[in-house]
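Consider a concrete sample entry:
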Amino acid sequence: MKSEEGTKQEKGEVVMTTKVQKWGNSLAVRIPSQIAEQLQIRQGSEMEIVVANGAITFRPKKEKPALDELLAKVTPENRHNEIDLGVEGNELI
């Protein structure tokens, strides 16, 4: 599969032309390496496919941060004080 040559700038966007190819029972579009690098897309990256107004848009699916990444962002400045929720009731255990 080979991308068609054709790159142009349009309203601050990069527009490239490529061909749709058969891949098993599906169709596939190759992502040129320079675009993949720019968007940090790698083999195995999840993509969202959006169909709206007669157009298809592909965008990288945002990865959920790991717990250790979230905890690394906690600082004394952005922590809230402990909240007193009162005495426990008569919950059944």
Summary: The radius of gyration is 23 Å.
